[in-house]
Write a structure and sequence with these properties.
Layout lengths: L1 H13 L3 E4 L2 E4 L3 E4 L4 E5 L11 E8 L1 H4 L5 E2 L4 E3 L1 H5 L11 E4 L7 E4 L3 E3 L3 E6 L5 H9 L2 H6 L11 H5 L2 E4 L2 H39 L14 E4 H4 E4 L11 E4 L3 E4 H5 L12 E4 L3 E4 L10 E4 L5 E4 L4 E5 L5 H9 L4 H7 L14 H5 L2 E4 L2 H39 L9
Parallel strand pairs: 5-10, 6-9
Antiparallel strand pairs: 1-2, 3-12, 4-11, 5-7, 8-9, 8-11, 13-22, 14-21, 15-16, 17-20, 18-19, 18-21
Helix pairs in contact: 4-7, 7-13, 10-13
Length: 421
């Protein structure tokens, strides 16, 4: 390993146009700076929450949770503070275009303000000097998230001190090169934002189709037969087969991601060392997770699609579909939230111990659905699945754009690739 490092350093030493600094090799015409040299530094604060005169004003007061979801620019906070809240507390009014950086807990999350704003004490912020491009500095700090975390300390939670933030070292090119780099990365951000917008639009379209087609409010051409009310147990068979073959593909249900391997979800294997007591399910089988989560207030139904066989906890209710039901139709019925109202009726009061809904097996399989013929089910599923395919294509494209942007940041913000001015 040392020979490899030595060879790499020797190569850089002989590479024209680079110099060695305390943060590594950088282009010879770039400068090593601390953040304090690049802009005015601000800290945040919280006005007294018991004094109403400090609140319900017109000035943004951002918290870290709002920034983690904001994107490059942040527009409006959930709570606003008043002029008195700014004047008579540790909250500091910062100019439009200030880069606010989370330096407590979610260290490194950041955004650019779009108007005069304040933050709580979970931030250190910087308003760039005229010689520094705001968007370039945003991308530069964003690329240093891991190093910001390494500079942090604390026993209860990690926090980056004001001193360490001020003295944090970065490599900075000339203003024209900053602007060119920021322009390139902004192009990728716009593509990412546009793609996410299309995904959101398609997801709304799918939700509308689900509510119309899977409830019979809108019928497809050529189908006029009356829909029938059935019990979940009429169209499914419960699975209680134990894992006697000791399959070790242990999966868990993520409400947002479906079935995933436990080690991928928890970053460790949490299953029992003896897997024979787990349920064994096969591709196409369903399982219901009684844990409630964001967007799934009454638990989540998922179908095993990515594994031929898998092992799940006996806390899940597992079942396969009978011949009188189209599997895709049922999957869309579940994902459309059409079981929520009936699940709410059978979930017993106070039955949320350990995060699990208290739902009995008999009540579960007696849940009622109103469904069309299998032929109409299949046609409805085709329409909804077409939108799903579009969403999947755009999500794949979004991941490509995000990976490309990450690679560009690593190359452009270190000077490994230089831009033409």
């Amino acid at each position: 390993m040392s020979e490899v490092i030595k060879t790499y350093e020797e190569e850089l030493e002989t590479k024209e146009g680079f110099k060695k600094t305390k943060i590594g090799w950088i282009p010879s015409n770039w400068s090593l700076k601390i953040l304090d040299e690049l802009g005015k530094i601000f800290t945040g604060g919280t006005p007294s929450t018991t004094n109403n005169l400090y609140w319900n004003g017109s000035t943004n007061w951002f918290t870290p949770s709002e920034i983690s979801k904001s994107g490059k620019h942040v527009y409006e906070s959930l709570r606003k503070i008043s002029k008195d809240g700014v004047k008579k507390s540790s909250a500091t009014l910062m100019p439009k275009g200030t880069i606010i950086v989370c330096t407590r807990a979610t260290i490194g999350d950041l955004a650019i303000t779009t108007e005069e704003s304040t933050t709580n004490q979970g931030f250190k912020s910087i308003y760039p000097h005229d010689s520094v491009d705001t968007e370039f500095l945003y991308y530069l700090i964003d690329s240093q998230k891991a190093n910001l975390i390494r500079k942090s300390s604390g026993s209860t939670f990690l926090e980056l001190s004001t001193t360490n933030f001020r003295r944090f070292k970065v490599a900075v090119p000339s203003l024209p090169e900053q602007q060119k780099i920021a322009s390139i990365l902004s192009d990728w951000d716009r593509a990412i934002e546009n793609t996410q917008f299309l995904i959101n639009k398609l997801q709304l379209r799918k939700k509308g189709l689900t509510q119309q087609l899977l409830t019979g409010k809108t019928r497809l051409a050529g189908f006029n037969d009356e829909w029938k009310e059935v019990k979940l147990g009429d169209i499914t068979d419960r699975i209680t087969k134990k894992n006697e073959e000791l399959d070790d593909t242990v999966v868990t249900i993520s409400a947002q991601r479906g079935f995933i391997k436990q080690e991928d979800f928890f970053n460790k294997r949490v299953a029992s060392s003896t897997l024979s007591g787990y349920y064994l399910i096969e591709k196409g089988d369903f399982a219901y997770n009684k844990s409630y989560s964001n967007g799934y207030p009454m638990g989540a139904f998922k179908r095993l699609d990515d594994f031929d066989k898998a092992v799940v906890t006996t806390l899940y209710i597992c079942f396969s579909v009978k011949d009188n039901i189209d599997s895709d139709f049922l999957m869309n019925y579940f994902e459309g939230g059409l079981m929520v109202k009936n699940l709410m009726k059978i979930a017993q009061e106070g039955g949320r111990a350990h995060g699990l809904l208290n739902i009995g097996l008999n009540d579960f399989f007696n849940l009622k659905l109103t469904i069309p013929s299998k032929e109409e089910q299949a046609e409805i599923a085709k329409v909804v699945n077409t939108v799903d395919d579009e969403i999947k294509n755009y999500q794949d494209y979004l991941e490509q754009l995000q990976a490309q942007k990450k690679g560009l940041m690593q190359q452009l913000l270190t000077g490994k690739i230089r831009v033409k001015l």
